[in-house]
Design goal:
four-stranded antiparallel beta sheet; alpha/beta; 30% helix; 10 helices; Rossmann fold; eight-stranded mixed beta sheet
């Protein structure tokens, strides 16, 4: 059984106007998304800004209430939960936020930040000291940081504190929302290696959200490519990078900087701007920027489905299945 199942998930944010704030439309942040995550794997989610990847992660966390669809953790629906059920769910699913400074309480010391989590979930007071020191050791921080405040640390150290808070309850699933994008390049590799070590030692499952395709390739077992709230392609990491099928995926991969000036990109750069998520295009969401779009691309939304050659490589493209 997959540890996480997402079925036909939608999240629309209402758009209002006027004195009485009447709803005049909706932002289609996540629009009919389905996938599963196996225990112990890392599922990467990539796409341009505004594609819905962060909203998807926040819906899974329970920070946003889905407009429709189902989210199940270990077979249990995450729909309407009681207070006690929500508390138990919070212990199983944690999040590492993009900005380690904004996600930590500036008025609390590291000790207070970590102890708060243990207290909320009923950890005995007698074990708090050992619990806090144990989780600090897991993220390679010394005990002398316990009395310091977040502003006294570097970005990488603050992210380690955020990671320590996330793993303190021994969660089943961690949603990593751009966990290294706010860090210096020299620090990013250390944080990524820490996440890999924790996954191996603690048996963690990651939902890894990022716009950096090089980072996602290094971290992920499988990868989802999103555009305007929909999944364009889903495949294991090696297959996706070796043989991308969707024109959008191909364009993203060709946009990765290459240090060798003699290397020629495989496709033309994308033209135009991303359409409005309040009024997405009819048919394929990518049709306004796709150099291969035909009449059917403007009329019918393509299904996300496999080919006869590879049942695990899913693509939502009329041209590929034509």
């Amino acid at each position: 059984m997959p540890i996480l199942e997402v079925e036909h998930l939608k999240k629309y944010f209402p758009v209002t106007s006027g004195v009485f704030l009447r709803q005049t439309g909706a932002v289609h942040a996540v629009d009919d998304v389905s996938f599963t995550v196996a225990r112990g794997e890392t599922l990467g989610i990539v796409g341009e800004s505004g594609c819905g990847k962060t909203t998807l992660g926040r819906c899974i966390m329970g920070l946003h209430s889905p407009t429709s669809g189902k989210i199940r953790l270990e077979g249990e629906s995450m729909g309407k939960l009681s207070v006690s059920q929500r508390k138990a769910f919070a212990a199983k699913v944690q999040m590492i936020f993009q900005d380690p400074y904004e996600s930590l309480n500036p008025r609390q010391t590291v000790r207070q930040i970590l102890e708060e989590k243990f207290r909320i979930h009923g950890r005995p007071a007698a074990t708090l000291e050992d619990d806090v020191h144990g989780v600090l050791n897991q993220v390679n921080l010394d005990a002398d940081c316990l009395l310091k405040y977040p502003h006294e640390f570097s970005g990488g150290q603050r992210q380690r504190i955020g990671i320590a808070r996330a793993v303190s309850m021994s969660p089943e699933l961690i949603v990593c929302d751009e966990p290294v994008s706010a860090l210096d390049v020299s620090v990013q590799s250390k944080i990524l290696n820490l996440l890999l070590d924790l996954q191996e030692n603690l048996g963690l499952t990651y939902l890894f959200i990022s716009h950096d395709l090089s980072v996602v390739r290094h971290m992920s077992d499988r990868i989802i490519v999103m555009y305007l709230g929909k999944i364009m392609e889903l495949a294991d990491a090696e297959t996706l990078y070796a043989a991308p099928r969707h024109p959008y995926t191909q364009a993203l991969l060709d946009a990765i900087p290459v240090p060798d000036p003699t290397v020629t990109l495989g496709t033309l750069p994308l033209k135009g701007e991303v359409p409005s998520v309040e009024n997405p295009p009819k048919g394929c969401r990518f049709n306004t920027r796709c150099p291969h779009a035909t009449d059917i691309c403007f009329e019918k939304s393509p299904e996300l489905k496999p080919s006869q050659e590879d049942a695990l490589h899913l693509t939502a493209c009329h041209l590929f299945y034509a």
